[in-house]
Amino acid sequence: MILQIRKNGDAILKKVAKPVGRIDKRIQRLLDDMAETMYAADGVGLAAPQVGHSLRIFIVDIGQGLQEYINPEFVEMSGTVVDREGCLSVPDFTGDVARAARVVVRALDRYGKSFTVTASGLLARALQHENDHLEGVLFIERASALYDV
Ligand code: NI
After folding, report:
1. How far is C-alpha 90 from the geometric centre of its chain's CA atoms?
2. Which residue in 71, 86, 146, 148 has a CA-CA distance of 20 to 30 Å to 27?
3. What separation in Å is there between the alpha carbon of 78 and the centre of ligand 1?
4. Helix (H) or strand (E) run with residue 91 in it
């Protein structure tokens, strides 16, 4: 099911999301709906608060397949790189944002199993952007320059 994407100004985008407790069918359904919603909108990432669920879940697909993250934690961050970002919740702007160049993220998958991903480049950027949504932060608050779309 395609979910409604909340836009900048919606209060849920400013909230700190809650950790997922039990990973059950309801959470797996939410992950499925988030993927359908992200692909329909042509996005490379989507966080649960963007579709109205204040939970620590996000998904990304930078063209290497779908990745699902539940209760993600950044265990390492290094380097800095500035690049352009956009967001499905901020359709009117892109912006230049400084992010860590390399990250290591630990999270749970849809079966509750822990996994670790080491990322650089666009994937590292997408993971940090999506994790910001779980902290109630939009990229426009971090951007050094904004551009009209
Ligand atoms: Ni976003």
Report:
1. 13
2. 86
3. 22
4. strand 90-99
CA of 86 to the centre of ligand 1 (A): 7
73 is catalytic: no
**Banded pLDDT at 76 (limits 50, 70, 90):** very high
Domain boundaries in the chain? Answer: 11-148
Please state the φ and ψ torsions of residue 112, each to the nearest 5 degrees: 85, 10
Span 99-142, pLDDT tens digits: 999 999 999 999 999 999 999 999 999 999 999 999 999 999 99
Distance 79 CA to ligand 1 centre (A): 22
Q: How far is the CA of 89 from the centre of ligand 1 (A)?
A: 6
Average confidence (pLDDT) over 84-103: 97
Which one of the listed residues 76, 130, 135, 141 is annotated catalytic? 130
DSSP 63: S
Q: Compute the 3-state secondary structure of the chain and give helix, strand, coil in percent, each to the nearest 5.
A: 30, 40, 35
In sequence order, which ranges of the chain are alpha helices (DSSP H)? Answer: 25-40, 121-134
11-148 has CATH 3.90.45.10 classification: yes
Instruction: For residue 69, give the H/E element and its range.
Output: strand 67-78
